[in-house]
Amino acid sequence: MKLIKTFLTLFLIALLASVGCLYYAFKVEPYRLTLNEHQVQSVASEEKLKLVQISDLHIKKDYTAKHLEKVVQKVNEQSPDFIVFTGDLYDNYSNYQDNEQVASKLAHLRARYGKIAIWGNRDYGGGASRIYENMMQQAGFSLLRNENLVVGTSQGRSILFTGLDDALLGNPVLPPTVEEMNGTAYDILLTHEPDEVIQYQGKGYELILSGHSHGGQVNIPFFPQVQKKAAAVMGHANRYTGGLYTLDTGEKLYVNTGIGTTHLSARFGVLPEIAVFYI
Asked: Residue 194 domain-assigned?
């Protein structure tokens, strides 16, 4: 009898723990935010510039424009010089859209020198390609598709942003950059899918920013294969799943694990993130 009671007690504890974990994964963690800061200066400069990256918002029925208020507040608290969005605004535009409210919330993001965005695969699917460019322009973003943008600062530094088209549903082509790089202090490449970096490393960029992977959305301690397999579901995110990498050619690659969710509206051990870079 004592053995049975012990077994039942353990079973009840395990059941409650499982229910608690599921509740946390679906109802708590997806709505939290973490701030990750990184020093990535390659050249000493008296002017300290702050760049904030957000990625993969995946707006949908359970993550609406209302939830963007917390994101906007957190980003603006950083007083960024630049804001970069590396793609995937909606999760599935054919299932849910709220263009006016989403654009309005994003318009409240404030950056001293500019806001830059690129295309993700979800920005093409479900009819999103018809509205994405207009929405980002309404929100005050410069949307790049195989284009360069050089932005000057008040102290005379020039920062180059190269934004590539999405690799899954678009047609990424690296635009000529040699002439622009000769006159810039720092060069940043934006590409939605991280594994695409193999094609662009060694091109002279100090920093490459991407997203798409969501970090797998699930990271169970002592079972790293779960996160790796989950990230692989995204496609083009098998090699680089999240965080800061130093490539063989010396460039820094940062894979933002995103803010929203896709496939499954849950996160566990992979908090929604805002990344801050000092360049």
From this structure: yes
User: Where is pLDDT greater, at 247 or 45?
Assistant: 247
For residue 6, give Cα distances in angstroms to 13, 15, 20, 79, 132.
11, 14, 21, 55, 58
pTM for this predicted structure: 0.91
pLDDT over threshold 70, residue 226? no
Query: CB of 118 within 8 A of CB of 188?
Result: no
Q: Amino acid identity of 132?
A: Y
Tokens 């695969």 belong to which residue?
121
Token pair in block for residue 216: 């797998």
Q: Which residues of 171-207 are buried (b: 16+ CB within 10 A; e: fewer)?
A: ebeeeebeebbeebbbbbbbbbbbbbbeebeebebbb
Domain assignment present for 9 = no
How many percent of the chain have pLDDT more than 70? 88
- Containing structural domain, residue 175: 32-278
* Cα angle 265, 268, 274; round to 5: 85
Greater confidence, 171 or 221?
Answer: 171
> Domain with 52 in it: what CATH number?
3.60.21.10
